[in-house]
Write a structure and sequence with these properties.
Radius of gyration: 25 Å
CATH architecture of the largest domain: 2-Layer Sandwich
Distance between the termini: 47 Å
Strand content: 25-35%
Oligomer: single chain
Bound molecules: manganese (II) ion
Helix content: 10-25%
CATH superfamily of the largest domain: DNA ligase/mRNA capping enzyme
Strand order of the largest sheet: 1-2-3-4-9-8-7-6
Structural class: alpha+beta
Number of domains: 3
Length: 550
């Protein structure tokens, strides 16, 4: 069948004056693109798409793919989609077919093990995936048609190979961000809702669909207005550092202070500013001071990466102090900026880090706000710098390869070396205090490992009076009868009170006991910027050898 005929159903179901999904029409080279879109329609499902014959063959996997070969996941065959649908991430408006948020959850290549045309006809397609998240062998097999079936039902099954896992759903729980933009579902929904920030993935890439979107107003304004340099840069998922035990040696590394606060990316174009968290949530309204400072920069547009933190009089940054400053509006909140991703419409991510930092420093030096602070660095002498940082009571240092480009996600060209141990946990419950007036004695904490919530131990120190009051109010509203983790020891569970695992706290700890519980932990603050599902024990990598390689 020609691609054109094969897309008839797709086009019939959609009103392209209303939805921003692509109309399709671009003929493709013969390729083997693979992708999965997480789609929060009436129910959330995962749309598996395999390029064949110029279109994307599609299946809606209702529960999502499982890495466990024993799981057979229902995959309802849906209409062929146009190739450019594979770049679509956004919101399908209410009332339209498939209304809801769409996230690019995985992408890569696929490799059929037989002739795909025949295999699809026969109803059994064996293939390999080379995606960012899904890999290895898979099978799609058509179920026998039963009387009254209105759907074309298939099963998606993982092959038994080294990429299989008994914990089949771990991936779905741990990888909750877009593989393309790093955003969580809520961030995609919110960003789409705010008209200003619509310059995102899937736009401007498709020539044929551009004309169908004129009615949205936003397009029209953009077309008649700003030059390329004046456009608000779209969200870029931040580069993250790998935790290692030792600072790397050599002159190719530069070292910065590790700030203890919230990671924040600021985008500006003219008067428009967007302050976003590491997951792409729009927090512009929460940080008006930073928004004003960024708006005042002497440039047409820019995207800046940094950490919002509160420094004490000795220059140390403290997560707890930041929390107090945010809730009371008092305190010396600074936006410590350390990277420049774009300037005046030019993408700088491929430039070496030291060049990006030179430009950033020039930009920050020109302005007068005391909120925006350039995060300086030292080149080489990693071990010395780390030792001094710890002696000063700092949290640690970040070592970065001076010649490296900016890459979204966790990398080994950025390393973090911590003085004490910090770890985030999910609050599972609390134990009552025998001290009159104290809200609780300790918090019961946990984390996710391989998709399952595990008990990690208790933390009973580090709480101020304000912390106790604020926490007890939150805990009260989340109360539940049973522990959310199955492995809370019985003697603790007997007297504890449990809560729905939603709150995420930052702690400092000395390490782990032999049983794998928290050793000498103390509370540092609540994290509002992180979903509980993303709280996993931080793993340590090895510091790469000095200088060479990445
Ligand atoms: Mn769908």
């Amino acid at each position: 069948m020609s691609a054109k005929a094969s897309l008839q159903t797709y086009r019939k179901r959609r009103d392209f004056r209303r939805t921003r999904e692509p109309e399709g029409g671009k003929r493709s080279r013969s390729g083997r693109r693979y992708l999965i879109q997480k789609h929060a329609a009436r129910t959330t499902h995962y749309d598996l798409r395999l390029e064949h014959d110029g279109v994307l063959k599609s299946w809606a996997v209702t529960k999502g793919p499982s890495l466990d070969p024993a799981d057979k996941r229902l995959a309802v065959r849906t209409e062929d989609h146009p190739m450019d649908y594979g770049d679509f991430e956004g919101v399908i408006p209410a009332g339209e077919y498939g209304a809801g948020t769409v996230m690019l959850w995985d992408e890569g290549k696929w490799e059929p093990l037989d002739d795909p045309e025949e295999a699809l006809d026969r109803g059994k397609l064996k293939f390999k995936l080379h995606g960012a998240r899904l890999t290895g062998g898979w099978t799609l097999v058509r179920m026998r048609h039963r009387k009254g079936d209105r759907q074309d039902n298939w099963l998606l099954i993982k092959e038994r190979d080294p990429d299989a896992s008994e914990d089949g759903d771990a991936l779905l729980h741990e990888d909750v961000t877009s593989v393309r933009s790093g955003r969580i579902m809520r961030a995609i929904t919110e960003e789409e809702a705010s008209e200003e920030n619509r310059d995102l993935i899937g736009k401007g890439t498709s020539g044929s669909s551009g004309s169908t979107r004129e009615g949205t107003g936003n397009e029209a304004r953009k077309a008649g207005g700003a030059s390329a340099g004046g456009r608000l840069p779209g969200f870029v998922a931040p580069q993250l550092a790998t935790l290692v035990d030792e600072a790397p040696a050599g002159e190719r590394w530069l070292h910065e202070i590790k700030y203890d606060g919230y990671r924040v990316l600021a985008a500006v174009a003219g008067e428009t500013v967007a302050i976003r968290t590491r997951n792409g949530l729009d927090w512009t309204d929460r940080f008006p001071g930073i928004a004003d400072a960024v708006r005042a920069l002497a440039c047409q547009s820019a995207q800046i990466d940094g950490e919002m933190a509160v420094a004490d009089k000795d220059g140390r940054t403290d997560f707890g102090a930041l929390q107090i400053a945010l809730s009371t509006g008092k305190g010396d909140v600074g936006y410590y900026v350390f990277d420049l991703l774009s300037l005046d419409g030019r993408d700088l991510r491929r430039e070496p880090l030291f060049e990006r930092k030179v430009r950033l420093q020039a930009l920050v030096d020109e302005q007068s706000s005391d909120i925006l602070r350039y995060s300086n660095h030292m080149v080489g002498h990693g071990a010395d710098i780390f030792e001094k940082a710890c002696a000063l009571g700092l949290e640690g240092i970040i070592a970065k390869r001076a010649d490296s480009p900016y890459r979204s996600g966790r990398t080994k060209t950025w390393l973090k070396i911590k003085c004490g141990m910090g770890q985030e946990f999910v609050v599972l419950g609390w134990t009552p205090s025998s001290v009159r007036g104290r809200a609780f004695a300790s918090l019961l904490l946990g984390y996710y490992k391989a998709g399952k919530l595990r008990y990690a131990g208790r933390v009973g120190s580090g709480f101020s009076q304000q912390d106790l009051a604020a926490l007890s109010a939150k805990l009260g509203s989340l109360a539940r009868k049973t522990p959310a983790a199955g492995d809370v020891p019985r003697d603790i569970a007997r007297t504890a009170h449990f809560v729905t695992p939603k709150l995420v706290v930052e702690t400092a700890l000395r390490g782990w006991t032999r049983d794998g519980y928290i050793r000498q932990g103390s509370y540092k603050g609540l994290r509002g910027d992180k979903p509980a599902r993303e709280v996993t024990p931080e793993e340590r990598g090895r510091a790469p050898a000095s200088g060479r390689g990445s």
